[in-house]
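Sample pair:
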Amino acid sequence: MNRLLTSTAAVALALVAPPAFADMEAAQQFLDAEIGDVSTLTREEQEAEMQWFIDAAADFQGMDINVVSETITTHEYEAQVLAPAFSAITGINVTHDLIGEGDVVERLQVQMQSGQNVYDAFVNDSDLIGTHWRYGQARNLTEWMAGEGADVTSPTLDLDDFIGTQFTTGPDGNLYQLPDQQFANLYWFRYDWFNDEQTKSDFQDEYGYELGVPVNWAAYEDIAEFFTGRDMSYIEGEPTSVWGNMDYGKKDPSLGWRYTDAWMSMAGMGDKGEPNGLPVDEWGIRVNENSQPVGACMARGGATNSPAAVYAVNKAIEWLQNYSPPQAAGMTFSEAGPVPGQGDIAQQMFMYTTFVAPLVDSEAVMNEDGTPKWRLAPSPHGVYWEEGMKVGYQDVGSWTILDSTPDDRAKAAWLYAQFVTSKTVDVKKSDVGLTFIRESTIDSDHFTERAPNLGGLVEFYRSPARTQWSPTGTNVPDYPKLAQLWWQNIGDAMSGAKTSQEALDQLCADMEDVMSRLERAGVQGDLGPVLNEEQDPQVWLDEAGAPKPALENEDEEPQTVSYDELIQSWQ
């Protein structure tokens, strides 16, 4: 990220102080110094789009607005480069705060509960779509763009060009959030090691099948065992001891994402369905025909403490303890993400692709010609998984404006949200952060040229497979309240304070306690939880779908596939 931002430092500094009267001079300076031809728009089209922002912002010049997002490369670029550029071009002074994702959710919750305007706009995950739809405290963007926000809605916004709006749309068909960045959880592996003849031969001799991209968890486990402690120095420049898995396990808010970000679905805990399992989703929450949550524990028809969920947690702990660097157990999401770039990790079950940008800057995993030694592929699935189930997670960080934000400040913030997602800047922003939101950017000539250096990322986003990776869905009635329960309870299992079964029993009980309070309070009206009566879990286990009964044998035949054949299937 630093290498990419260095070239933009001068323009950022030059544009920090907005001119007394915003005009095209600042826009042209920005386009010359920062954008150039790294855009899907011609220079004439870029200038026309910038002129629209200048005109639309006329009534808000001199206003100070505050927005917030989590700290990832894409948002650093927005805060350091795009925010000062926007301020210079429009005369609206933007303070773009960067904080941890857990802190973003906490401050959003504070504003929702207090009604006091803390931030004029939030980039928060579309995982909160169920929360925003049920509480009705986020501006309904569909109505906003057609009504009071029409005069500040860009004619070139082109919502059809966004690839993630299906995840930010409520069951009522209305848009509540505007995607700003997207990244998926994919399988990451050392393509060079997997294709080395000696390595392949040794694996074949030991396990009886070909080394390749694991299709299921059984193959992943074999590969993790094979590489852990292996001396790879027979390949010039490679380490004498490597690890077969990378993960993190610190009792921290990010530990919750490790599991809610589709880990349980990949194991096979929930039901079939896209973008999320129905009636039981990847959190184990069951909903009725009216999309009202009715339970999370098996006694109410949920699956959070089901055999498949226990299997999922047990496997994660086992692999963390047996095949990962010792320090991984004490790491968070942000600390663990860059570790594969150090060069001694053979594979990672799921790589948040927001970490691809720093990987590209890691010499230990890049060839001298700029191509990667690694590749990205679909994550393998567990023994309870069935065809038609969700196969992975996709983060969709999205602009959200709460009703508690005054109208004039909301309009100014909406202009900024559209600026940083505009076609003028999107290719360049994607170039820096590699978090794609627009079809036109993914299909651009620029990323056709960059694709060989990004290890399959562009091919994935151009493939129809990408729709099978999805964020948390609308089964979750209150993300801020429920998400914190995951890391607190799962942390007890990771530390050994409780068994996985004990931790999950407590987790689903805590989730139902929150949902019961929501039901009694009636704060979500007819959309809120209506918990089922408890009964013998076996009643639900005997029904089709989730929760699923324990398998007599959780071992399965390992399966791998050639990466190059996989890529061909994507094309």
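Residues 500-521 form the longest helix (22 residues).
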